[in-house]
Amino acid sequence: MYINKFLKVCATLLGCIYIGSMVIQPLCIGGFDNLMKTWREWQTFNAGMIAIFAAIISAYIALHLDKSARQREAVKISESRQNERQKLRAEKQARDEQREREFIAARPFLPASLTLIHEYVELISKDLLRLYAVIKADDENDLRRYVADIKFKNMPSGYQGVFKECITLSTPDVSKHLAYILVHLQVFSSRVESLDPQHLDKRNLGEMLVDSIRFLFKIDSMFDFAREGLPIKDIHRTVDNYYSRINRLLDYQIRIERGENKQIDKFIDSAARRD
Q1: Which class for 96: exposed (0-12), middle (13-18), buried (19 or more C-beta within 10 A)?
Q2: Which residues of 61-94 are buried (b: 16+ CB within 10 A; e: fewer)?
Q3: Which distant-in-sequence residues (6+ apart) come within 8 Å of 106 by Cβ?
Q4: Distance from the CA of 231 to the CA of which of 35, 39, 79, 271 falls in 20 to 30 A?
Q5: What pLDDT shows up at residue 152?
Q6: Is the CA virtual torsion 179, 247, 135, 263 positive or negative?
Q7: pLDDT higher at 146 or 215
Q8: Nearest Cα to 274, choosing from 245, 223, 237, 220?
Q9: Comparing C-alpha atoms, which of 148, 138, 99, 115 is closest to residue 219?
């Protein structure tokens, strides 16, 4: 760009000086005859000036052509990049649409899998509530029987494939919720397996009971999405919601009232604040 400007300035200055000294001045001093005389006397100089002008014009044309070529190349590169971006967007859109179709096909199996997990956790919750009542009554025989009943209940199977496919195909937010259920189920099941009637910790039992209720709430929040594709909503559960759900486990045959057990009150308050 600067070379083009330099050539233009040089050509303009030389042209003005040359025309002034070789055309205008001779015409003004002696007319046309003086002009012809001047040209004859300065033939060699004129030939050199013509060569200089020709070189400047050639250089300018070459630079202009080179600039045009670079501009055309830049346009081609820009168009190529734009086409590549459009192609990538189209491919991504196609992949997203395919993944969405596959997820729509996989989602109908999710409610059954959630139900399996929900039933298992609810059964364990009922046994944990019975254990809580047995510890209160200090009945060692019932204590061993209920612990055995809990361990006899095997963790459900057949849900892993559905969860894996849905986690792979769903959005990050849905995948996070589904992964939480899987991870929490493993932790919950491990804690159940570790129960020992000889070394039952009342505090640990109360924490497990409240945690099982919170887990049930989390599973409940997934059913509207699994059945109808509605957004997942983590509904805030109050302290009263927890006590009500605990007492409904065995149709109010065994009740836990607020203020009855300070440890369970503490666990429920903590769980309610996290929701």
Answers
A1: exposed
A2: eeeeeeeeeeeeeeeeeeeeeeeeeeeeeeeeee
A3: 162, 165, 166, 169
A4: 271
A5: 64
A6: positive
A7: 215
A8: 237
A9: 115
What is the tens place of the pLDDT at every residue in 128-138?
888 877 765 55
What is the value of pTM for the model shown? 0.67
Report the alpha-carbon distance of residue 246 to residue 260 in Å, rounded.
13
Each residue of 119-140: b (16+ CB within 10 Å) or e?
ebbbebbbbbbbbbbbbeeeee
d(CA 68, CA 80): 18
User: Which residues have C-beta within 8 Å of that of residue 128, sequence separation ≥ 6?
Assistant: 150, 205, 208, 209, 212
Residues 201, 194 contacting (CB under 8 angstroms):
no
